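Example 3.
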Amino acid sequence: MKEKLVVIGNGMAGMRTVEELLKINPELYDITVFGDEPYGNYNRILLSPVLAGEKTIDDIMLNTMDWYEENNIKLHAGKRVSEINRIARTVTASDGLVEEYDRLLIATGSKPFMIPIPGHDKEGVIAFRDIKDVDIMLEATRNYKHATIIGGGLLGLEAANGMMQHGMKVTVVHLSDTLMERQMDSVSGKMLRNSLEEKGMDFRMEAQTAEITGNGRVTGINFADGTSLETDLVVMAVGIRPNIELAQQAGLHCERGIVVNDTLQTYDPKIYSVGECVQHRGDTYGLVAPLFEMAKVCANHLAQMGIGLYQGSVTSTKLKVTGIDLFSAGDFTGDDTTEELVIQDAGSGLYKKLVIKNNCLIGAVLYGDTKEGAWYFQLMRSAQDISDIRDKLLFGESHLGDSGHGGDHIADMSDETEVCGCNGVCKGDIVKAITTEGLFSLDEVRAHTKASASCGSCTGLVEQILESTLGSDYETPESKPLCLCTDHPHEEVREAIRKQKLTSIKAVRRALNWKTEDGCPACRMSLNYYVQSAWHNEAQDDPQSRFINERAHANIQKDGKYSVIPRMWGGMTTPDELRAIADAAEKYEIRDVHLTGGQRIGLYGVEKAVLPKIWKDLNDAGMVSGHAYGKAMRTVKTCVGKQWCRFGTQNSTELGIKLEELTWASWMPHKFKLAVSGCPRNCAEATIKDFGVVCVDSGYELHIGGNGGIKVRATDLLCNVTTEEEVMEYCAAFIQFYREDAHYLERTAPWVERIGLSRIEDVVVKDEAKRSHYAKRFHEAQKISQIDPWKERSTNGVAAHEFTSIKVINA
Amino acid sequence: MSNWIEVGQLEEIPQQGSRVVKTKGFDIAIFRTINDEVFAIKDACPHKQGQLSQGIVHGKKVTCPLHNWTISLESGEALGHDEGCTNVFTARVEKGLISIDLG
C-alpha cells in the first residue's frame, strides 16, 4: 500500500513541494491537502495587480480544482486543521474529519500582524493577505472615499497603489521616516516617496497609531501625538508572523517559526515544514523564491532521493507599482568593512547604490532604472570576484564591452517587441505565459514559449521580463544545475569526474545519482565532453551522445542534407586543392559553393550517403576535415603578412599555419576560432576571435575572449611575447585551461567575463609552471585526437552504419 | 490488416541510436533505446520535418536535430509544450530480427 502524505496548507510553498514531488515520483504517496480558503492554489504575490485591476483572480490561479483531480490529490478546500496527533499520526479538521499520515507537511504560511490597539477589531479594519481581503477592499472602493494603509512597506505601498487606481483617496501611515526601510536606504526611500506623492498618495511619516475610532465601523484614526485622520477603511500592512499555532499545539519545537533543519524536517522527522511558517538557521522568509528552493529540497527528501540541502537564501525585492522601478537585494546598508559605489541623479530620478565587501557584491539598491537588477543579483549569489569589472560595475552588464541586447529597457518595450529573434517570441507572449501559466523560472518560460531556448542571447531580457512581471523575486537558481536530470552544477560535475576518476557518462550518472536513466541531450553532450577532457587517455567517446553534426562530421542543413568544408591551413590553398574541390563539386552535382567567414570553401547540399565518397576524393587530393561542424577548433584566419604586404611586421600566414597544425582536431566546450594579423591594421580581425595574434614590430600581441557572433565582444589583451615558440606555448596553455574550466557550450567570451581576466593571467602568463602544465596536457591530448575523421570513415570503414539506410523497400 | 516486413538485425542499430528504412513515399526511422526496446516512426518531425533519425535518443524519446523538439517514440507526439504528432508503426523483435508493420 502507498504511504500517506498529508499537506496542511494549500498555498504556494505547499503546492510547489507537491508539484516537485510529482515530477520526481508521482506514484509514491496518496496525497491529501487541507486548505483554509475555498479555492485551488493561487499566486499570492500577484494579489496586488488584482487589486489594481490589472489582473483577475482567474489570471493568478496556479492549480485549479481540475489539477488536484488529475493528479489524484484529495483536496479539502475551506477546511482548517485544528489538531495534529503525533502518536496516532492523524490530523483532525475543525469539522471533525480525521486523516491519517505517514509523512506530514506543514505549510501553514504566515498571518498578517494586526496591531492590538483599541478599535483594531472594528468593521472596515482588515489585512492584505488573501482573496477575501481583496474582495473587501474592492467593495470599499465602490462605497467609500478614503482608505488608510498602516505600514509603508512593500505590501502596504502595493495596497495603497491598488486602492488609488480605483479612485480612492489614500493615506499611508508609517512609523519610520523612510518608506520600505527594510529594502531601501534613506535616499532611495525619499525618491520613492516623492514619486508616490506625485501620483497623489498622502503620507503620515513617523506617525504612531494610537486608536481606531468609529461606532461599529471605522471612521477615523487617532495618533499618539494627538492628531487624527478621518478614514473609511484601514488596511494593516505592518508585517507578517509565521503561522505556528498548530505546530506549537502538537509540541513541535518553534521559536519565531517552526524550526527546521537543512532537509526541512521539524524536530519530529515524520513532519516536514516549508514556507513562511518555518525558521531555518535563525531566519524566516516572506518572499517566494526561498519557498521554492525549500520546496525542491523537501520534495527530494519526501521522494527518498536523499540529496540536496537547503542552506538559506539571499533575497531580492521589487515593488510592483506600475511606473515605479525599484530593486533591492542583500545587505544594502553596509558597515565599516564594506565599500559603496553610488550614482545619484535626483533630476532624472536615478539612484544606484552597490555595496562591496572583499571584492564581492553583497547588496544593491536601484531606483529609477532596475534593468541591471537581475545581473547584480546573480553576481551576489555566485559571489563572483568583481575586481576586474569594478570600474564598469555601476553602469551595468551592457557596459562590459558587448553590444548585444543590453540597451533595451523592459518597461519601455511594447508587447509587440520581439525578444527572442530565433523563435519569434514577443514580449507580450512571454508576459502572457508567465501570468496565465503561472511560470516562475527561466526554464519554465523556455518550455512554454521557446524564448531564449535556441541561441540564448536573449536570456537576460527574458529574466528581466520575469522579474518585472512577477515583481517580488522570481526564481533565480543559486547555481544553475547542469540540466533537469541533476541538481549538480557544471563545476561539481567536473570536479567529481576528476576526483573520482569517472571515465564514462554512465559512471558519472551513477556516481552523482542522476534522476533519469540515460540522461537528456544537454547532459549527454556535456558529460561526453567532460569525461574526455579530463581523461583523454582513458575515456571512450560515445558517438550517440554527440550532436548529429559531430557524429556525421558534417553540418546538417534544414532539408536534411549536409555541408562539406575541407581544412585550408591558415587560410592558404593551392591550384591542386582548388581543382580537386571543383572536380568534386561537379562530380557530385553540388548546387552551392560558398566562401565561409573563416577563409574556407564550403560545398552545400550533399546527401548523407555521399559524404564518405566526396571525403575520399578530397582526401586523395591531400585535404582533411575542416571541423566546421563541431564544438572544436574551427579555423585560423590570416592576412598575407610581411610575405607580401608592405605594412606586414611578421610572417602571419606561416604562424597561422603553425597554429592550425598545433590545434586542429581539438574538441572544445564550444566552437573556437583563431586569427593572426600581420600588423596592427588587423585585417584578419584577430580581436574578435577566441585567440587572436596581432603581429607588431617587437613581436606578438596575444588577445583572448573575442567574439564576432551573437554578442560582439572585442578581445582582452593577454600579454606580449617575442617569439613564435612562445605564441604556440601560450596558445596551447590558454586553450587547455579553457577546455578544462569552461562550461560545455560556453564560449571564451562569456567564460572570460565569468571567471575574470586576472585568473587567466595567473595561469597562462604569470606562472610558468602552470603554463607548461596546461600546454603539456594539450599536446598529450592532441596526440590522440589528431586523426582525420573523414579518412577514418571514407577509407577505414569507421561507423559505416551512420551513412547507410538499414533497408530499402520498393513498395 | 497487418503487413509485417523484416528490416534487419537489432545489432545493426547502435543503442540510443537509429537507422532509416527507405520506402517509396517516405523514410521510417527505427530506434533502439538503451534497454534494447525498438520503435518505428515516420522520419519527419511534426515541426519542420527534421529527420528524427538524426536526433539524440534518450529514454523512450528522441530530440530533433533541427530545433530541439522532443518526440515520444511510443506515441509519435511532441512532448513538453509543443504540439504535433508524427506517424507511428508497430515494431517487434524476434530472435534479434526487427520487423515493422506497415499496415
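The first strand of chain A starts at residue 3 and ends at 8. The domain at 125-238 of chain A is CATH 3.50.50.60 (FAD/NAD(P)-binding domain).
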